[in-house]
Every structure is written in structure tokens, then in C-alpha cells.
């Protein structure tokens, strides 16, 4: 499978815990995006990398959210001290000549 | 106020009908995407447009940059077209703004 893969597919966590999601983009794509989608809403842009450089992070929802792409390949999105409002689908996409989306990680905070 | 507005929010059509989904945006863009999201959540990029018109099978997308408007047309609609269709614009800095989506149901 040469698409964008996200891990895990589902995550249930207790409020206050930290969670980390991983995105593996298409290998030749240099751009990587993270989005959040809540039920019934369109995706919401969070942050964007070109290679290992995080070019836009002002749209991250709070300082509890952080993302890395240390070697310009896979990326991680971490949410610290999760809150119930963080429950959503977290989507990753990679871009080269086109855009390819992953299937997302569904987070449920209980 | 949303930078990207889509209409209608929900659409039900009979199989075979011609369908149009509209997208208006208020920001300067470098390109516009039409995305298709299936009930399981996976998103597929249907088109990326910066001008004119593109066609792929039964799908046609148009954009009018001056009017800041784009339309997605589906000819001879089929139940497998049932999905949420999302308009997304790319602005300076490669940031995305998304519409809230149009939920399409095609009835056999």
C-alpha cells in the first residue's frame, strides 16, 4: 500500500492523558498536513510541514497540541492533557503533485 | 463567518439526476479542491482547480476566479455517489480553508 497511513485508527483515552498519533505520508511527497474534523463539520486545518520544517502552526488549537516531522518523513501529532472537546477525527494528508488523505485517527476522550 | 460556504448542506436526488453543488469563498486563493468523504471517513481528492473546468468521468468541476465561486456537477447520479462533498481552498502559505460539506444521498 503506497497511500498515506495513519496509526492508530481509533484511540480511546481518559481525560487528562497525553496521546500521540502518527502519519506516514507517500514517500515522494514533501508536504504534510494535519486536520481535525468533528462530527458534522468539515475538516479544520491544524498545521503544515514542508519536509521537516513546520511552516504554519498558528492554527493549532491550543498549546496542548504539537506536531513534529523530525526527518521530513513521518509526522506525529501530540495532544497533551486531553479534554473531552478534543474528541474528533484527526486527518493527515500528504502532497506532492496531488493530495492524498489518510483514513484518519478517531480520538474519543472519556 | 466562514471563509468557504457551500450549498446546499444536504441534497437528496433520484438515481440518474444531474446534481450541482456550489462553493463560494471570500479569500484570495491559489487553488481549490473538491473532496469526497465516504461514511467511513476516508477523504479522496476529486479535483484541484485554479481556473476553468475539469472533467473526470461523470464529474465536472468549474471555477470562476473573478466571482470566487466553484461548482461540482455530477451527471447521471448513482447511489454510489452518496457521500459528503467538501470544497477546500488553498491560500497563500499553503493553508487550507474547508467548507462544511454537502451531504449527498442518491436514491435508487
User: What coarse outline of chain A follows from CA principal-axis ratios?
Assistant: globular
- Average pLDDT of chain A, rounded to a whole number, is 90
Count of alpha and pi helical runs of chain A:
0
Low-confidence runs of chain A: none
Q: Briefly note the structural class of the backbone of chain B.
A: mainly beta
What characterizes the major β-sheet of chain B?
6 strands, mixed
* Beta fraction of chain A: over 45%
In whole angstroms, the N-to-C terminal distance of chain B is 36 Å
- The parts of chain B where pLDDT drops under 50 for at least 5 residues are none
Order of helices and strands of chain A: EEEEEEEEEEE
Q: Encode the helix/strand succession of chain B as letters.
A: EEEEEEEEEEE
Q: Tell me, what's the shape of chain B? A: globular
Number of strands of chain B: 11
Walk me through what this model shows.
The complex is a heterodimer of chains A (110) and B (108). In chain A, the strands form two sheets. In chain A, strands 2, 4, 5, 6, 9, 10 and 11 form a seven-stranded mixed beta sheet that branches. In chain A, strands 1-3-8-7 form a four-stranded antiparallel beta sheet, with no helix packed on it. Chain A is globular. Chain A starts with a strand and ends with a strand. Chain A has no helices and eleven strands. Helix content of chain A is 0%, strand content 51%. In chain B, a hairpin with a 2-residue loop joins strand 6 and strand 7. The termini of chain B are far apart. Chain B has strands at residues 4-7, 10-14, 19-25, 31-37, 43-49, 52-56, 59-64, 69-74, 83-91, 95-98, 102-107. Chain B contains no helices and eleven strands. Chains A and B meet through strand 4, strand 5, strand 9 and strand 10 of A and strand 5 and strand 10 of B.
